[in-house]
Predict the structure.
Amino acid sequence: MQYEYMVNHMGISPAVADYIKAADADLAKPYACINEFAAFNQLKVLHAMQACRLSDAHFADSTGYGYHDIGRQALEDIFSAIFKAEAALVRPQLISGTHALAAALFGNLRPGDVLLSPVGRPYDTLESVIGIRPAPGSLAEYGVIYRQVDLTPGGGFCFDTIGKALTDKPVKMVTIQRSKGYAWRPSFTIKEIEELITFIRTINPHTIILVDNCYGEFVEEREPIEAGADIAAGSLIKNPGGGIAPGGGYVVGAAKYVEAAATRLTAPGLGSAVGPTLGMTRTLLQGLFIAPQTVSACVTGAILAAAVFMKLGYEVNPGPHVLRTDIVQAIKLGDAKKVLTYCKGIQQAAPVDSYVVPEAAPMPGYADGVVMAGGTFVQGSSIELSADAPLREPYIVYHQGGLTTSHAKTGVAFALDALYREGLVTI
């Protein structure tokens, strides 16, 4: 009935609906795998809330300094339990994943320290934070030295080069980006991250290992701390917010490193002891509770997009039957007009601002013009149906999100329909 409704009431071409429906019918096995992970992670979240004795008394708000906020403490205890971490910093004052990562980096690095990325260039917005792309207040301006080891042509780890980088000069921190970002490389599974961390520990057991966990939460059974990471960070308007959190970010891991990030967020001497929740605690917890199911919907849409566009002859990353570790689906469209049209279709599928046509424009933290389609209830929320791309060669679109399975699939249909109507794809 879903695809018939799209044709009869929403203007989707019958040929597109039939094409999507046929692809959808062949994906029962990967869908079932995702549902298993969702069920497991749902129980993990439920158990953490029960073990931490969550009560409606924790939903009261705090203002001003936020001293003795029992709801904030419960929220952070629950995150610690879920992520198997000593401590957590979960705050609405963290405005994005980039902000959470910056707090962890600045909180734990000092002038003269070496920061190493063994997985190639980081996500665009981290380039300014680190100082790869010059920006006022970057780590580079504070005297932190950045080193990078590129991946192999096939997207694997260059262990020999990483080992050399770790021994050339003492490395204070290693940063590992789990998701592919705006790169054409695999997103790293928890098993792969664990293998890399184990290798690093054999050379330098005291190096702080930070994982950028954005887009990866609740996709697999385990999280980075369980793989040996010291600290991990992410955004609440991505996976762990469940599409309900209106903002915020988190840092989890060893208590001393999390507290160092808290000190960077607030001020020396204050750290995690302050920070009002401003009435958001219940919303953040409710979003966290449904997050595994929302993530499952997102991954279902990503798998469908991969299957549809691979069948049309496009390179997709990952493929529809590959084990997922994040919610992002990359599709190499190879043409700027196709990227813009794909994003136009995603926007047309949105519940908010569906009449808007997205265009590439300068964005804070990005070197290239970026097109972002996302008619979302929360601005910039990429757990909601969205697609974005830097408008540069080889013209890859990054598709993610969908609060429900039905809407995630609808987004794929609208994106394909926009390309089909423009004569940019042949079915």
Q: What stands out?
A: The mean pLDDT is 96. The CA atoms of residues 96 and 235 lie 5 Å apart.
